[in-house]
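Entry for the shared binder. Reason: the reviewer on the internal report wants the predicted structure included alongside the sequence.
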Amino acid sequence: MTELLPYIADKIEKFKVRHDIHTFDSEAIMIDIWVDNKFYVVQLDGAIAGLSLVTNETTPFDVIPEHSFNDINEFKNAFDNIFALAGVVSGKDSITVTD
């Protein structure tokens, strides 16, 4: 699922959200994303893409994602929903959160 990285990077750039990308010797990729005061972790490893909302009840270092996807389009829909739920729209210099 590492082929999703350009798609994810494009969204991050478009919406100018805070993020960190971590790569591992195993070729797995973890992307920390902060959207609308929420912290999400995307995990890309082999044929699986994972997506988790990290809260006080969860840990950001869990190797098992909250939601796992082996279908690219299903992952894209869930990933896009993060931005839609937050009401984030692309701005020229920063993100804007709408009410």
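Summary line for the report: The chain has a mean pLDDT of 83.
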